């Protein structure tokens, strides 16, 4: 059975680009354009991995979604890749080693996402099953 | 500007403890000068024997003045200024002690006839300049008036003897006239001093308030600027992602010409994103949230950056020579800023050096500075364009020819970052031979 990847991002063009990329590696892709709706779908569909955009409605909606996921028993173990342009936007460089305590995501990928980098990162973060 | 916003923004005192402390020192210096003037005056009186003055008493006054001033200086030097109130008390104490000594001086030089009673005016001026509230200057004026009146009264009723100095007629009408003129002079001077000072303070506060407004507007502008940059970045990122998918993911046979056009398009999106990133980092002005500079050992950060550029250098067959880094001790620098500076400099060196060239990274040290010297065997920068190279959006003509993609912001960002860390950057370059950028940071 193909692994199921969920994308939460309000830019449908980006979602489409990622979907096509991921489908070439035989992943099943589901998506949502908005955080709360994404959470609902996640609980129902139980994807194997989540790709989450950091900035949607607000500057940090992605972070709030990530916290909610980590605090929800049903979905708290799903790996999260956070897509971000934040590093360039705020001049605040994320440093995983330093920030993992308060940023509950597995890895950051900076926009624009190179297709090969996306595939590699997804593969690396999928739970071995 | 509406009055409400103006007065609302004056929430601070006109003086700070430190600036009032400087005024206190100023008074001490004035007192040295007046002590010397007084000593010379007494000497002149003594030599020319104008009148029979009680010279011993006068010399004692000078000595007490000098002693008091030394003590004051010692105390002010020893204790750091802390509170505005204490500094104000210091000024007041200085004025009152001056008035006591001045009154004694006036007594020994002829009471109401003494020319020294003009000196009471000095302190009125000082008080109206220094004190925050208007009434404080008037209190000083009242002290001056009271001191002289008391003295004259005591001399008149013979509690104190009157040193007449040859003035024969000494009657109540002369005294009243002299005192009245004195009162009017003192209070009018206080009024003028205080009024002028109030006006001055108002203007200064207005300038301060307007400055604050300007800074706020500037900050808002920068925020808007960053917001716009982000908004511009989103669509271009989507465009690039779409092109990426066609070129790298979809397994389709594109005609070479079509592939070439898409490649060109992709290259331009990369350029656009670079420009936007640079614009955002350029919009960060000083005073924004920045980490405190820490002790950074620069040698620990260079190898990391060099390693990062090795693959690119290898691709272009460029040799990166890294000499032994000097300075094992740390100095005050922002680590991220420092890394950004070397990253940008090495990146430029590699980009503008033709295949087969070399990029050399050297460091140097002298008593005051640490130097980072990055030289390449690149295309060089024409002499006449060197002075523009640090300007925003400037790209040298030969640079444009050599590398079509470039934002023209890199060097201006480097310069800004170097200056932000109180460093300096120098350039030496010769066409077709290469360029050397030297960055210098103070070790202190």
Concise account of the structure shown:
Chain A has helices at residues 12-24, 35-45, 61-70, 86-90, 96-99, 115-125, and strands spanning 4-8, 28-32, 49-53, 80-84, 107-110. By secondary structure, chain A is an alpha/beta fold.
Query: What is the element string of chain B, with H for helices and E for strands?
Result: HHHHHHHHEHEEHEEHHEE
How do the strands line up in the largest sheet of chain B? 2-4-5-7-6
Q: In which range does the helix fraction of chain A lie?
A: 40-55%
* CATH-level-4 superfamily name of chain A: Response regulator
How far apart are the termini of chain B? 44 Å
Shape of chain B: elongated
What fraction of the residues of chain B are assigned to beta strands by DSSP?
A: 5-15%
Low-confidence parts of chain B, pLDDT < 50 over ≥5 residues?
Answer: 1-11
Biggest β-sheet of chain A: count, sense, barrel? 5 strands, parallel
Mean pLDDT of chain B: 83
**Main sheet of chain B?**
5 strands, mixed
Instruction: Specify Rg of chain B, calculated over alpha carbons.
Output: 37 Å
**CATH class designation of chain A:** Alpha Beta
Unreliable residue runs of chain A: 86-101
Estimated structural class of chain A: alpha/beta
Fraction in helix of chain B:
55-70%
* Computed structural class of chain B: alpha+beta
Average pLDDT value of chain A? 81
């Amino acid at each position: 059975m193909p692994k199921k990847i969920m994308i939460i991002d309000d830019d449908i063009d980006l979602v489409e680009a990622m979907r096509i990329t991921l489908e070439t590696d035989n992943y099943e892709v589901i998506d949502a354009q908005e955080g709360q709706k994404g959470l609902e779908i996640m609980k129902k569909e139980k994807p194997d991995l989540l790709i989450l955009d950091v900035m949607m409605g607000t500057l940090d909606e992605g972070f709030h979604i990530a916290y909610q996921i980590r605090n929800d028993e049903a979905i708290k173990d799903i790996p999260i890749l956070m897509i971000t342009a934040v590093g360039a936007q705020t001049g605040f460089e994320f440093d995983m080693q330093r920030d993992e305590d308060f940023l509950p995501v597995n890895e950051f990928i900076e926009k624009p996402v190179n297709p090969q980098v996306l595939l590699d990162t997804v593969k690396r973060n999928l739970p071995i099953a | 500007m509406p009055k409400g916003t103006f007065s609302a923004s004056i929430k601070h005192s006109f003086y700070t403890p430190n600036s009032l402390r400087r005024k206190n020192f100023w008074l001490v210096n004035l007192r040295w000068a007046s002590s010397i003037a007084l000593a010379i005056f007494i000497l002149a009186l003594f030599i020319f024997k104008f009148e029979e003055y009680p010279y011993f008493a006068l010399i004692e006054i000078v000595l007490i003045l000098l002693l008091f001033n030394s003590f004051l200086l010692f105390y002010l030097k020893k204790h750091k200024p802390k509170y505005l109130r204490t500094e104000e008390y210091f000024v007041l104490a200085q004025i009152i002690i001056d008035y006591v000594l001045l009154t004694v001086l006036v007594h020994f030089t002829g009471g109401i006839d003494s020319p020294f009673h003009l000196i009471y005016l000095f302190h009125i001026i000082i008080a109206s300049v220094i004190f925050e509230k208007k009434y404080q200057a008037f209190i000083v004026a009242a002290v001056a008036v009271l001191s002289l009146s008391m003295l004259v009264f005591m001399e008149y009723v013979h509690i104190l003897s009157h040193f007449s100095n040859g003035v024969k007629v000494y009657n109540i009408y002369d005294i009243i006239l002299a005192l009245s003129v004195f009162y009017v002079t003192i209070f009018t001077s206080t009024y003028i001093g205080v009024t002028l000072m109030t006006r001055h303070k108002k203007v200064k506060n207005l300038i301060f308030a307007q400055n604050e407004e300007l800074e706020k507007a500037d900050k808002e502008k920068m925020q808007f600027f960053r917001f716009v940059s982000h908004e511009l970045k989103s669509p271009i990122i989507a465009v690039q992602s779409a092109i990426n998918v066609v070129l790298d993911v979809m397994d389709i046979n594109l005609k070479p010409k079509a592939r070439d056009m898409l490649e060109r398009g992709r290259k331009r999106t990369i350029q656009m994103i670079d420009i936007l990133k640079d614009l955002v980092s350029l919009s960060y002005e000083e005073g924004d949230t920045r980490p405190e500079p820490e002790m950074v050992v620069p040698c620990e950060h260079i190898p990391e950056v060099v390693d990062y550029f090795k693959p690119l250098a290898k691709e272009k067959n460029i040799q990166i020579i890294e000499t032994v880094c000097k300075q094992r001790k740390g100095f005050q620098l922002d680590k991220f800023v420092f890394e950004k500076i070397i990253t940008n400099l090495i990146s430029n060196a590699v980009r503008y050096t033709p295949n087969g060239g070399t990029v050399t990274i050297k460091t140097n040290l002298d008593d005051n500075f640490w130097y980072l010297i990055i030289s390449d065997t690149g295309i060089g920068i024409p002499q006449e364009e060197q002075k523009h190279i640090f300007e925003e959006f400037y790209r040298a003509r030969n640079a444009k020819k050599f590398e079509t993609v470039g934002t023209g912001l890199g060097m201006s960002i480097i310069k800004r970052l170097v200056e932000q860390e109180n460093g300096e950057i120098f350039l030496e370059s010769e066409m077709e031979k290469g360029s050397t950028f030297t960055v210098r940071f103070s070790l202190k």
